[in-house]
Amino acid sequence: MLDIRMEKTTQPKAKPADESKLGFGSIFTDHMFVMDYEEGKGWHDARIVPYGPVVLDPAAIVFHYAQECFEGLKAYRRADGGVQLFRPEKNGQRLQATHDRLCIPEIPVEDFVQAVAALVKVEEDWVPHLPDTSLYLRPFTIATEAVLGVKASRTYQFYIIASPSGAYYAEGINPVKIYVEDQYVRASPGGTGAIKCGGNYAASLLAGEKAHELGYSQVLWLDGVERKYVEEVGSMNIFFKINGELYTAATVGTVLPGITRMSCIELLKDWGYTVHEGKLAIDDVMKAAKDGTLEEVFGTGTAAVISPVGELVYEDQKATVNEFQIGPVTQKLYDTLTGIQWGTMEDPYGWIYRVD
Ligand SMILES: *Cc1c(COP(=O)(O)O)cnc(C)c1O
Question: CA 338 to CA 248: how far, in whole Å?
Fold first, then answer.
């Protein structure tokens, strides 16, 4: 249990007047959560303070060796005015796994959830009200020790910032075009593909820019060894429905264990679908598209929830999925997850954490 000190801002900002123009991740609330780590002292001085710049020594390890990681989750406004989170303990568990991989001391899951809920409670009025809007929460940890030797830092800071965000599909949920990347790779076995560290994103930017220049909205990543098996799409997990059954890459080291992915698998199994978690070759996907058995393709992640894929391009082959329409299973997953998240549907799974 954290003892969280509160320092209120004396200069509260005006809340965004038009919630239909929030966009994503560019407006920030009045406060942030901060906690320090020091060898011998552990995590300490948990506090909620006015949102503002972070001042660090230019030699801080985070700037040079990217000992840094993050999480992403949302606070949702219910119709009754209350606010809730979706499986926040899963983010806490994943942050621990990420910390372990990066030699950063763990934060207890209960403390993580307490910190998230405390910040949301303080910033409750910043949770927008329009349908499909949310308060996006960005927890992150940075290595702060000022030393240029390559080693794990002896000091860290953990932050949570919050950003009111607009409906992801302001113009309706439209399938996207995907470029299958066969040159660059995102992750390889033994690397950091399974954790949310900033370095993974820095390394993925070039492929994303190439895809955009070619007119595609995301990259589909193949495995880093054989460049043969599908792994993720952009910063989302990816599912394929072929001949009535679902396929997604196993989270065995190179694939980020998405909480949306996990929830989709649980829902699909509950609905009686067979879900294969394992290797699926891009050649088999293209073959299924040709013989008409590729029924649906969709990405999953907290920001978009579900992102239907309408077209895949791999080398000189092009596959159109479900005539560029969102498929029925994709739609049902979207409706069910968003229904539970915003509290318009019952939550039979115990996924909701009420902040009030
Ligand atoms: C965060 C992330 C996801 C999605 O995870 P969710 O918990 O569903 O938001 C998928 N892939 C990558 C690379 C990610 O960073």
Answer: 21
